[in-house]
Amino acid sequence: MPALNTLYGYGEILTRLGLAAVFLYAGFDKLTHWRESVAEVVELHLPKPTLFAVMTIVTQLVAGAMVASGFGAAFGAIMLAGFTALATVLGHRFWLLRGQAARHEFTTALEHVAIISGLLLLALERVAR
């Protein structure tokens, strides 16, 4: 069915752009607000905050561009899925909190699980072709 193939093609493009948008925006925002980006890493008590901030920006921009463009999309999606999983564990430690703060961080962690799932689904679909 030609119409279904056309719809599928547009759907894949929209999916890639939707998944990449948050990372491209975040990477650009971190780049343009460099001091706040490093301060965020310092707040997480990670070693070498400048290096972590650079790695975050590069991962978000490069892998985000790969997903958005479709060039190396499976690899970019896997990179972003791994990055998001790590960022969730390091930055949204709901299990250490109580009350509203714990609920908020848990909701954010679940949203990240949904993003990770979408990225992995994109990667699997690309590899299966």
Notes on the structure:
By secondary structure, this protein is mainly α. It has one domain (2-128). It is 86% helix and 0% strand. It has 5 helices and no strands. The chain has helices at 2-32, 34-43, 49-69, 73-91, 99-128. α1 packs across α5 and α3 (49-69) packs antiparallel against α4 (73-91). The longest helix is centred in the first third of the chain and has 31 residues, at 2-32. The relative contact order is 0.12. The mean pLDDT is 94.
Which key terms come to mind for this protein?
mainly alpha; 86% helix; globular; 129 residues
Layout: helices, strands, pairs:
Elements: H1 2-32, H2 34-43, H3 49-69, H4 73-91, H5 99-128
Helix pairs in contact: 1-3, 1-5, 2-3, 3-4, 4-5
Uncertain runs: none
The count of DSSP E runs of length 2 or more, i.e. the number of strands, is: 0
**Can you count the helices?**
5
Sheet/helix structural class? mainly alpha
Q: How many individual domains?
A: 1
Distance between the termini: 18 Å
Assembly category: single chain
Helix content: over 70%
Question: H/E element string?
Answer: HHHHH
Shape: globular
On the 0-100 scale, what is the average pLDDT?
Answer: 94
Rg from Cα: 16 Å
Largest sheet: none
Strand content: under 5%
